[in-house]
Structure formats: C-alpha cells, structure tokens
Input
Amino acid sequence: QVQLVESGGGLVQPGGSLRLSCAASGTITSVYTMAWYRQAPGQARALVADITKIGATNYADSLKDRFTISRDNAKNMVYLEMNSLKPEDTAVYYCGAVIIGPGTGPEAYWGQGTQVTVSP
Output
C-alpha cells in the first residue's frame, strides 16, 4: 500500500513564493519519476514539472523560469519551489509518482492534492 501526501499549499499574494512537499510512504521498493501536476477550475490536469530518479528534470515551458522541482531519494520526497507567483497559478497541485513495490511492476500513484491560491 502506497500513499502520496502533499503539503505546503495555501494563500499567497502575487509575487510571493511557496514550497510544496510530497512524501511517498508505504511498501516501496523504488520510486521512479516523481512529478507535480496542477488543475485549475474548469481545466484539465496539466504537467508542471517532473524529475527522474537520477535528477533529470522537465518543466512546462511557461513555468521553467519560476518553478523548481527537486527530490530527496533517501526520504522518498519531491518538492516544488514556486516563485513570483501569479493569480493564474491558482490551482490544486497534485503530486504523482511511479513506484515499484515488492514483487510488483511500476505503478502510478497520486496524492490528494493541495490548494494553491494566489490573490491580493
């Protein structure tokens, strides 16, 4: 049984910063790619950034200058540093990961999401 739990969301003013965290726990053999997605009201869930086990990163083009993804393999955690936040960054942010358990192949897991609201 694997769980992903996000934290760090909240209300922030435009121009501010937030750091999201996501912890993977449970019966885990290995955590492969970890990622952050976001979903704004009325829109589809979209990739923000992902990071491989060896640290290769990929970003949505419009976010790469303001957001930074990182991970701690020893803790099975992934982070998203968000700077110069804009109202259009308001969304529910979801953590996702591809995880292998004992005797199982890679499976995708999602967290429950954390709300980020950027407003004066």
The chain has a mean pLDDT of 97. The chain is about 0% helix and 55% strand. The first strand starts at residue 2 and ends at 7. The two ends are 40 Å apart (CA to CA).
